[in-house]
Specification:
Layout lengths: L1 E7 L6 H8 L8 E7 L4 H10 L4 E5 H9 L4 E8 L4 E7 L14 E4 L5 H12 L8 E4 L3 H9 L5 E5 H9 L3 E8 L5 E6 H6 L1 H17 L6 H8 L4 H10 L9 H13 L9 H4 L2
Parallel strand pairs: 1-2, 1-3, 6-7, 6-8
Antiparallel strand pairs: 3-10, 4-10, 5-8, 5-9
Helix pairs in contact: 3-11, 9-10
């Protein structure tokens, strides 16, 4: 049995992986796929890839591209979710901020530097014509950390996946004042290069299995109820999320890669541009 370590966020996007593991689909091919939930998100997973704590990661596109450019010896082997990630922009429910413009020059809660919440703060600021050099951040690690930071005034707003954060809006902890969708496919699958070189056939098997599941995922009977139950969501919210979410079984194409890289470069978040072939395998 070949042990393969994989990491991802504990969110509804990754249910296909858990179903495959629970159904022993990797096991029957001789692969012991060991999943680690990483609530801290992409910045933490980048570090795990660098440190060899995980072999693979289901990770935000912009975050892994930035980290590979900064020396992470990993490659992107496939797009996992083709649709954009809808980032909700949240404030404390009792806060005075009512609209997006109120947040200019205010402090953003982020999970860590290099995370999606960090990078998307820049994307949002650019879209609003704010001066990105004036952005301020409070590192909070997780959603729980963000709740605390917004309630005690250490941060003013928090960007996180809209549907996963919705229960906190429904229960009166947060108020969502805007959305900011990523301008590109949101999740890719990344692999450490040293692992990929020695285990290409195992990685290919893993992709075959997960791709067969994501192709038919939406047609699994009562999948909306399963998702709502597992991720503590309202059924109607999950049904809306399923309508806008599209999984992928294809490589990251060159035009999309360049779009992400160019935007990160323009925002001074990425110093050296990389050739497509060096990143996408």
């Amino acid at each position: 049995m070949k042990t393969v370590k994989i990491a991802g966020v504990p969110e509804h996007f990754n249910l296909p992986w858990h179903l495959c593991i629970e159904n022993s689909e990797f096991e029957v091919t001789g692969i012991d796929l060991q999943w680690t939930d990483v609530p801290e998100g992409t910045g933490k997973m980048c570090q795990m890839l660098r440190d060899g704590e995980t072999d693979m990661a289901v990770i935000l596109t912009e975050g892994i591209i930035k980290d590979i450019a900064a020396g992470n010896d990993s490659s992107i082997i496939q797009v996992y979710v083709q649709s954009p990630l809808v980032w909700g922009i949240h404030v404390d429910a009792k806060s005075k901020y009512q609209q997006l413009s109120d947040l200019q020059n205010k402090r953003s809660a982020i999970s860590r530097i290099g995370s999606g919440s960090h990078l998307m703060s820049f994307v949002n600021a650019e879209q609003q014509n704010w001066n990105t050099s004036e952005l301020q951040f409070e590192i909070v690690n997780t959603i729980d950390g963000a709740v605390e930071a917004l309630s005690n005034g250490k941060a003013d707003y928090f960007m996180w996946e809209r549907f996963m954060t919705k229960p906190l809006v429904d229960n009166g902890t947060f108020r969502r004042i805007a959305d900011c969708p990523t301008p590109w496919p949101c999740f890719v699958i990344a692999v450490r290069n040293t692992f990929l070189e020695k285990n290409a056939s195992s990685v290919e098997l893993i992709l075959d299995i997960i791709n067969n599941t994501t192709i038919e995922f939406k047609s699994i009977p009562s999948i909306d109820r399963t998702l709502a139950s597992r991720y503590h969501q309202k059924l109607e919210d999950i049904q809306e999320w399923l309508k806008v979410t599209r999984w992928s079984q294809k490589k990251l194409d060159k035009a999309t890669f360049e779009k992400v890289q160019n935007q990160l470069h323009e925002l001074n978040l990425l110093e050296n541009k990389m050739p497509y072939q060096a990143v996408v395998k």
